[in-house]
Amino acid sequence: MNITIVGAGNMARGIATRALVGGHDVTITAKDPDKAVQLADELSEQDHGGQVAAGDESALDRADIVVLAVPFAAAEQLAASYGPRLSGKVLIDISNPVDASLEALVVAPGTSAAERIAAAAGEQVRVVKAFNTTFATTLVSGQVGGTPLDVFIASDDEAARKEVADLVASGGLNPVDVGALKHARELEGFQLLHMALQIREGGHNWASTIKIVAP
Amino acid sequence: MNITIVGAGNMARGIATRALVGGHDVTITAKDPDKAVQLADELSEQDHGGQVAAGDESALDRADIVVLAVPFAAAEQLAASYGPRLSGKVLIDISNPVDASLEALVVAPGTSAAERIAAAAGEQVRVVKAFNTTFATTLVSGQVGGTPLDVFIASDDEAARKEVADLVASGGLNPVDVGALKHARELEGFQLLHMALQIREGGHNWASTIKIVAP
């Protein structure tokens, strides 16, 4: 698949790494084109399988899946501006709409960043929540403590959930389909607790992951 | 500690098992006294460490910690009726206020079963959310796939969180303090997804657990 990642930060690096391991072609586009070029160059040197390059916004038109790897406020704005040209495409929201104290979500009770982004993008865009519980460094390695990451996937479009599950599995991760997009609220809520656990005494320093452990 | 468990079902069995492994004394009280006697007899035969007996409601007065091991609607009613005699005691809410389809919580957005139970019990009761993400059979064994269960703990009373964490750790489980009681919403929300994952195709059949996996 053609994966376009919007953003050139740590989450872009992590998700791009998994997509390249899965043999997909990745285009990095960012507000600062130099950063996109730098990230693409670094990923290219690692020879993961798929091809990677930096690109401009025209990469959106060639993409099968677009990933908004930027913070929630920026993602909501980009969803609104990109929405009309993403008709029929899968748009992945990875954001965590947390306040600075990691004590609450900044979206209203009963809704989620993903639903806000879906509303901004418009009904023709197939919005999927994924990768919000996986920290950047864990995505780069694909595992924590030797166990593949769980990637929780929510969308009102069942085929889109399946496409993202295939992307996730191809990169060596474990997709977990949790159903409708409204369940992004529960994913964002639990990740708020997970984030707060990183920085307290004895915390995990952004190296842990949320996993459904089965026998 | 003296632990009184209200209820004689599978969750009562699981939590009682952990408390007995931890060397605590457990009293089982239930609407149907015969069921309480039967569970206490079965647990007693297993010789876990602590002492276990069935009792009537007077066991509430001797308890350091009271566990409401009944469904949410019953727990809310019991919290209201027991509240006045539980002044200063720790009351553990384990409930999951899910609808029959496992698609939504039955408590309003922005609140939780735990906060409802705290309101019903009254300010003098130290309400703690715990054990809502651990299925009964996993509590009996204390582990899933060889790894100890995480038990997520929320309360506005920091000392109460610590007491419940000690109870959890004494039974061989891993306490995870997530802070204020309002975060019960996030625990109940994510457990809704976890419960729905049990019954779908390829589901976990009530044998999995939610874990924060660290390196």
Question: How is the topology of this model organized?
Answer:
The structure is a homodimer of 215-residue chains.
Chain A lengths: L1 E5 L3 H12 L3 E5 L3 H13 L6 E3 L4 H4 L2 E4 L3 H11 L7 E4 L19 H9 L4 E4 L6 H6 L1 E2 L2 E2 L1 E5 L3 H13 L3 E6 L4 H16 L9 E5 L2
Parallel strand pairs in A: 1-2, 1-4, 2-3, 4-5, 5-6, 9-10
Antiparallel strand pairs in A: 7-8
Helix pairs in contact in A: 4-5
CATH class membership of chain A: Alpha Beta
Q: Could you tell me the mean pLDDT of chain A?
A: 97
Separate helix tally of chain A? 8
Globally, the shape of chain A reads globular
What is the distance, rounded to the nearest whole angstrom, between the alpha carbons of the first and last residues of chain A? 33 Å
Query: Care to count the β-strands of chain A?
Result: 11
At CATH's second level, what is the architecture of chain A? 3-Layer(aba) Sandwich
Q: Tell me the strand order in the biggest sheet of chain A.
A: 3-2-1-4-5-6
Q: What is the beta-strand fraction of chain A?
A: 15-25%
Give the helices and strands of chain A as they follow along the chain: EHEHEHEHEHEHEEEHEHE
Query: What is the radius of gyration of chain A computed over CA atoms, rounded to a whole number of angstroms?
Result: 16 Å
Structural class of chain A: alpha/beta
Q: What are the segments of chain A in which pLDDT stays under 50 over at least 5 consecutive residues?
A: none
CATH superfamily of chain A: NAD(P)-binding Rossmann-like Domain
Reported by name, the CATH topology of chain A is: Rossmann fold
Could you estimate the helical fraction of the residues of chain A in percent?
A: 25-40%
